[in-house]
Structures are given as C-alpha cells and as structure tokens.
Amino acid sequence: MTEAFGSYQYEVYFNALRGVVPDLPMTYSELAARAESVLPPSLWSYVAGGAGDEYTQRANVRAFERWGLIPRMLVGATERDLSVELFGMTLPSPLFMAPVGVLGLCSQDGHGDLATARAAARTGVPMVASTLSVDPMEAVAAEFGQTPGFFQLYTPTDRELAASLVERAEKAGFKAIVVTLDTWIPGWRPRDLSTGNFPQLRGHCLANYTSDPVFRAGLERTPEEDMQAATLRWAQLFGNPLTWNDLPWLRSLTRLPLILKGICHPDDARRAKDGGVDAIYCSNHGGRQANGGLAALDVLAGVVEAADGLPVLFDSGVRSGVDIVKAIALGATAVGVGRPYTYGLALGGTEGVVHVLRWLLAEADLTMAVDGYPSLADLTPGTLRRAA
Ligand SMILES: Cc1cc2nc3c(=O)[nH]c(=O)nc-3n(C[C@H](O)[C@H](O)[C@H](O)COP(=O)(O)O)c2cc1C
Ligand SMILES: O=C(O)C(=O)c1ccccc1
C-alpha cells in the first residue's frame, strides 16, 4: 500500500511541535541550494540550467506569482479530495514526476531511476520514466509497486527502434506512453555548451538503447565491447524531427494512452486531439529548450480550452503545493515537477524524493483547506485573480 499523503501534514506538524524536524529542506530555495552542494558541479549545471540566459526558466516560476487564489470562508473544508481520474485509473492526487533523463546519475548510489520508482511506489505519485536512464525500463517498472508508471519516448529516427521501445514499455507494464516533441534537437544551453557537458554523449543514461535488440542489431560490436561506438550510434539516432504527418504512425505504435509532451499552442492541441491522442502535455521543458520567453503557465488556459475535454498534463515552474493548486485551477488535469524531486533524489535517494512529494502534497492539501476548496473540482478559473 502507498502512504496516505493526507496524514503527512499531521506527521510534520506533530513532529515539529515536539521539535523533531527532518534534515531535509521545506522550501524550494533551500532544496536547490543543498542539492547544489552535494551534486558534482557539471551535473548540477546540467540539471539546474536551461536555454539561453534562462529567462524562460525564470518566467515559468514567476508566472505562478502573478496569480492569486481567492480564499473562501465558512466552507468547512475539513476533508479534502485530491484524487484524479486519468485513463480509467484513480490517482490519489494530481501530482506526477516529469521525466528527467539524468535521474540515474543524481542519486548517491548511481541508480536514481530505481530510487525514484521506489518513491512512486511509496507515495502513489506516478513517475514518467525517461527514455534516458541508467537502468533499463524493465528494471524501473519493476519498482513501481501498485503505482502506475508512464514511459516517456524520445522518438529515434529508426522507426523499428521506436516500435521496439514502445513494445518493451507495454510488456513492462507501463500504463501510458508520453512522446516528447520539443527535444528532437537539444536547445541552446550555454552552461553545458561552455563546459562541453552532455551526459549522454559521455555514454551515460543509455541503458534503454544498449539493452534493446533493435539497437544492438545495428552495432558492429556490442556496447559491452565498444561503448564509444554505441554512444556515437545513439547520437545519430536520438532525435527525429517529426511532423504532423507522423502522428498516425505514432498513434499506431500503441494501444496504451498516448500523450504528446511539449504542446503550448491551442492549434497544436486541437490537431493532436484530432489525431487521436488521449491527453495533451503542456510544457516548455522547464525552460531548457527554447528561451522563447513565454511561461508555460501562461499558455495553459488556451491549451486547456482547445483540448476540449481531453486531459491536460502540465509542468514547468511548479515549485510548491500552492503552484499545484493554481495549475489545477487554470485547467490542468495533472501537474508535474522536474527539478524539485530531482534535487530531493540528490539529497536523500528514495527518502529525499518521498520527502519532496509529501511536502508538495501536504502543502497543496493545506492550501485547499485554508482557502476553502475541498476538492479539485472546486478549483475553477474563478478561484484565481490575476494579481499583477
Ligand atoms: C535534468 C533534466 C532532464 C530532463 N530530461 C527529460 C527527458 O529525458 N525527457 C523529457 O521529456 N523531459 C525531460 N526534462 C523536462 C522535464 O520532463 C520537465 O518538462 C521539466 O523539468 C519541468 O520543469 P521544472 O523542472 O521546472 O519542474 C528534463 C528536465 C530536467 C531538469
Ligand atoms: O536535458 C534535457 O532536458 C533532455 O531532455 C535532453 C535529452 C537528450 C538530449 C538533450 C537533452
């Protein structure tokens, strides 16, 4: 069984009253500062950094500050219901873990994908497992327990390899496929470019490829014999500049729910819906891809409207439980975090991730209690006021 997150706030309260405070941060700024102090500098830069001067990354966070929740009184919101229906499943809350391709490297034991999957099992918070991982997807999925997991696909140029990855994800028990559209080519990332620092190009996090029969069949020597050649092959295959003409092919890859990640324009949301996808994932990749300036939160409502009833997943800039509540009020069905749980992983492995997830959920739950919104259905756009 997963932990009831609702009890976490009481645990934190009572422990704090007794003077027992966990040795893990309770605010994002402290979380980031402590993660920086434990991660190797190059890995810290890779995770914390973004595109260009990181204006968009900052805008993602600031966008939340421009919305204010209007408190309602005498509601008696003594019990809150944060559960969400998605693809016929009932999730305990709208929170999920966005795919992060270097998780494996971020935990002290070098197996952060597994550690994160264990946190998903403990909390009931789904993990979207990246194509880029230190351990193969089958090993990651084996740690999910009763919590559903989603597989994030970076579509390679080799269609047979794409089909193989999706087939493996189905067999491994993943419950949905998330196709990321915004990273067929890495963005302009000065921190990484100035240090020549791209973990995958050093042969890291490629287990899903090196364990794949189709990928292996394309190599002259096995990855065990020649990882450099395997890495080069990966770099050649990694990104596929798909077009809308490829959507029927993507759709044909799986009968699992199909989610397109990186949708920010209402027209793209409409087109995706017409193409038969099951959900839209509104995101600007945490400001890592284009430094285009617009916060993901500021395009959410338009995407939700165009999605016309399809579930809309959202990430980019969520740093607190209040942010989760605001994204739901602006129409998101489920809300993802990337860097926050990655920093928890760096600080404390599975425990660190569990801590961050429970904090975010306890804060969301308390916000709904204090502001008088007992269920997610009560969080409509009318509960927000644009403050600046
Ligand atoms: C270090 C790092 C690696 C990422 N790797 C992937 C990935 O492999 N696949 C993907 O779809 N998104 C990836 N993302 C983007 C996240 O899924 C997500 O969109 C983003 O982190 C959300 O923004 P946030 O970090 O502000 O919460 C990555 C993000 C970070 C920070
Ligand atoms: O770092 C990322 O955000 C990411 O998803 C990625 C994946 C592969 C190559 C470059 C970037």
Automatic annotation (TrEMBL):
Keyword Oxidoreductase: yes
Protein name: Lactate 2-monooxygenase
Keyword terms of this UniProt record: Flavoprotein, FMN, Oxidoreductase
Cofactor: FMN
Pfam families linked: FMN_dh
Classification via Gene3D superfamilies: Aldolase class I (3.20.20.70)
Family classification: Belongs to the FMN-dependent alpha-hydroxy acid dehydrogenase family.
Species per Swiss-Prot/TrEMBL record: Planosporangium mesophilum
Coiled coil: none
Positions of the FMN hydroxy acid dehydrogenase domain: 20-388
PANTHER family found in the cross-reference section: FMN-DEPENDENT ALPHA-HYDROXY ACID DEHYDROGENASE PB1A11.03, S -2-HYDROXY-ACID OXIDASE-RELATED
